[in-house]
Design brief:
Order of helices and strands of chain A: EEEHHHHH
Distance between the termini of chain A: 104 Å
Structural class of chain A: alpha+beta
Strand order of the largest sheet of chain A: 1-2-3
Distance between the termini of chain B: 43 Å
Strand order of the largest sheet of chain B: 3-2-1-4-7-6-8
Oligomer: heterodimer
Structural class of chain B: alpha/beta
Helix content of chain A: 55-70%
Largest sheet of chain A: 3 strands, antiparallel
Helix content of chain B: 10-25%
Order of helices and strands of chain B: EHEHEHEEEEHHEEHHE
Number of helices of chain A: 5
Strand content of chain B: 5-15%
Radius of gyration of chain A: 33 Å
Largest sheet of chain B: 7 strands, mixed
Largest interface: A-B, 24 and 28 residues
Radius of gyration of chain B: 18 Å
Number of strands of chain A: 3
Strand content of chain A: 15-25%
Amino acid sequence: MKKEWKHPFWETAAKDRLTVRLNITHDDGSFSTTVARVSKYDENGNITSDYQEVLEQNTMQVIDKFTEDRLERHRQEREAKIKKQEEQNEAKRLEDLFNYKLQTFEIPEIKESTNRKLKAKIRKAKNVIEMNAYATILLMEIMNEQETGESN
Amino acid sequence: MNKKPENPTKGYITVATKRIQFLIGAQNLAESILDHNEDARITLFTEQQFIDDPKCQQYLSSFEQVIATPSDTNREKMWGMANSPYDLTFYMDADIEIVHDDIANVFDLLDGHDMAYVNLTKEGAKHFAEWNWGPNLYDDGCSGVPDHLAHCGGVALYDTRNTLVKEFMYDWYELFLKQRVGQWDPVEFQSIRKGNFRQWDQLTLWWLIYHSPKYKSLKWKFFDDNYRWNYFTSFGFNKDGTHNCHLVDPKRDYWKTNPHPVVIHYSSWMDKYGEKGFL
């Protein structure tokens, strides 16, 4: 039986436990592979034979490198995931905002208004607060015009 | 050879059928064009039932013309494209909004070509339901017929002064309707053995562009500043106001100098059919 310990990395900062890909070529030629957890010490405080085997096949520098690369890879994956989630949240927010704007333009007074400048500001609003503010200004202008028309 | 009249008419068209949500979207599209180009000429193609419905009149006021489609399929857009009243036409889906003044100059981008499309890129592929069925990809250097949907149908810029362009759009319409019910399945489709590509009108477009002998003479191009003309919301919006053309279109470099989209396409998470929103 041939045992190969591949891609080991430290599980702990104390460097007393490893995770390793263990490839075994059996005497009958069959092959098996598994992820193994290897402790440096056994229950009596002695260095384990598996640990010694791993160290015979991989230098400390190599193990440290695998560990650092893995941490860096995970850090990058975490950052990418966070960024993607932020992008999705922002896209969803803007799609919701788009729907709110369409609803705003369903208000009859706003739909019928010819004030393109203010309507464009509603359409370009970056958030709901801004959208509501411009919609309110437009409605107030319409109401003022109506009141002026009535008083004349 | 068609002689092209000088001083072509220029206009925008969109198509809204089946649901009133698309009519509302189409009006918003028209208004957003007018925000940036107040002299724009815009035509809507929609169903006769909407044109006749008094409740729908409020959505038709932004258009220079409203033309009835012959049917109520969700692909009347190609019929509308074939019947554009303008020489130079920019077609857009109804769930699009315009956010940049460059919309006024879109017609200049044809630059002597008959048609211009947005190229669906490899890096953008994960945003599309289906994209490729084989290994020959434009973004991997393929210069022949690509094994993927290369042309986006969401927007199209074209010149109808070449009558062949109108025939192209008619054939796109007729062939797609046959394609999706299995009545038209050309030999070139036989290499497509995965997915459900026959449901897409972009596949019909792929065949017409790359395989139809009738249209070999048509000059088409992709927009140089590609995704500026069809920026899907699923591409993402960054909190600092920037966009992600550089991620979905890394082989081009327009985004280094001109990163802001003109066309925003609300086609990803939108509830187009009902309960949660207008679109």
